[in-house]
Design goal:
Blueprint: H1 5-23, E1 27-29, E2 32-36, E3 41-48, E4 54-62, E5 67-68, E6 74-75, E7 89-90, E8 103-104, H2 111-124, H3 132-135
Antiparallel strand pairs: 1-2, 2-3, 3-4, 4-7, 4-8, 5-6
Helix pairs in contact: 1-2
Amino acid sequence: MALNDREMMNTALKKVAIPFLREQGFKGSLPHFRRKNETNIDLITFQFNKWGGSFVVELAICTIEGVTTHWGEYIPPNKVTAHDINERFRLGAKSIDEDGIWFDFENAKSVEDFEKVASIVVDLLNVSDRSWIPKFFK
């Protein structure tokens, strides 16, 4: 039985993007990753289109103490995700108000096609610069 497209994309991200994020100090598992810095936590979430075939990469930051939601729920630093933060930036956008890049894998047929999409994401993630994500929120 062949894997469906979403499973193929997840497999490609686990092979290509996740090792890269781990090398840069990120912890977590697909779709949510976090990296603690001196003054903030960098957050990355892969958000898949509910209709299939594409995803966006959302970036956010929070304090090193975690976050308290507007309804009062405290989320500790080892559990916080980009989805817990109101202000998020999408990879490839020029501002917070833009949609960013939807990474399309709808026409991917081979393992290599899916891995190429994952490689494009890696090429855009400038996470070796620990100030890169926080710059979007200044």
